[in-house]
Amino acid sequence: MQETSPSAVAAALAVARSQGLRCDEPIVLRDAWHVLLHLQPLPVVARVSAGRPFPEGPKPDDVVRELAVAAHAARAGAPVVPPADEVEAVPYEHGGHIVTFWRYVDPHEAADACQAGRGLRTIHEALADLDGPLPEAGHPHETGEMLDFLSPDPGTELLREIVSRRPELDGQPLHGDAHLGNCLGSSGGPLWHDFETACRGPREYDLAALVMGDRIEGDNPRSRDALAAYGAHDAELLDAMLPLYAAWVTVSMLVAMPRRPELAEVVEQRLRWLSKR
Predict the structure, then answer these.
(1) Which of 106, 107, 161, 185 sits CB 3.0–4.6 Å from 111 for a disulfide?
(2) Where are the domains positioned within the chain?
């Protein structure tokens, strides 16, 4: 087992045992904002809140929100990674960590971009009737808290200005971080996941996430294919959402840079692009 976030791994295994899930070989799939742990040999993945205090880490409630939003979409038949069938689809708490359980998706070739774009529209339609509070698109309150945590410099002041100019937005529940990296290929077609930053706003906010990398770097035709397959949308509103989404992502990266210095180049690229906007 990879040595990473031992308290999160221990929490996942303890909750799994309490729910009657046998795990012979836990495999850490990812340790970034939260921890993903495959409970081999079961087709189950535990998602565990990282345990780092906000704003150095994400808020544990993100894991709870993700389960509610993705489960709603799954019940409507939308193409998402669903909660695991082996346990009740509720958040569990252990040792200061929140644990949720999801279906394991076998490794597969990259998701077809056109199918992913059509799937995102299906998700938007499935989430349209979801009740309950969600953060506003762009996460202005959380972004402000993260900016207050950072030392002021020209980059953070630029980001603060972008957030302060945020327009009044109406809309519906959204994925919140809908780039193709959050869409898995599977034998049954693309499956969207990582709903932990779900929010409420215009659908074009998710479409901004879908194409931001291409708009900045100009080398991601797959995202253009996905956008075309998504279908009708307001192109001007998408353009207006791009700085808002990019600012939130960039602030998150700035907070993470002390433990992930490889993000520095990406942050500088995003800041240059935002300053030109």
Answers:
(1) 185
(2) 25-103, 113-276
DSSP labels, 151-166: PP-HHHHHHHHHHHTP
User: Model pTM?
Assistant: 0.94
pLDDT digits (tens, 9 = 90+) for 90-112: 999 999 899 999 999 999 999 99
190-221 in b/e burial notation, b at 16+ Cβ within 10 A? bbbbbbbbbbbbbbbbbbbbbbbbbbbeeebe
**Given a cut of 90, is residue 31 above it in pLDDT?**
no
DSSP bridge partners of 200 = 136, 173
* 265: pLDDT strictly greater than 80: yes
Report how far Cα 151 is from the mean position of its chain's Cα atoms.
Answer: 26
For the domain covering 113-276, report its CATH number.
Answer: 3.90.1200.10
**How far, in Å, CA of 105 to CA of 85, rounded?**
13
- Closest-CA residue to 43 (of 21, 17, 74): 21
- Three-class secondary structure of residue 100 per DSSP: strand
Residues 6+ apart with CB under 8 A from 269: 216, 217
